[in-house]
Amino acid sequence: MAKILIADDSKLQKLEIARFLKKLGHIVLEAQDGFEAIELANVHLPDLILLDVVMPSCNGFSALRKIKSNDKTQHIPIMMVSTKSEDIDKIWASKQGAVGYITKPIDFVLLEAEINKNL
User: Is the entire prediction scored with pTM above 0.70?
Assistant: First the structure.
């Protein structure tokens, strides 16, 4: 059982992912945007973070850079989740420190495999 932080401004998407992760036995933390994700990562030190790319206020790439630049949270694996499926976005995420990139609509078999690989 792992503690996983989901950051997504879509309530429906977040709910679907949270339900899936809870069925797998994980503890789920939820954030509405990148700023809240950064705060929750600092406070709760999750085992893994799932970050949506497109969010208001602070997007996923900005949150990724802030989390990875903080000594306290830089060790946490981060997977990006997005409707953006272009190779440039995946390359950019990897260069910023993401360990994976899942496109929406989410293939939950793939998501489970990626989570298991990164825990």
Answer: yes
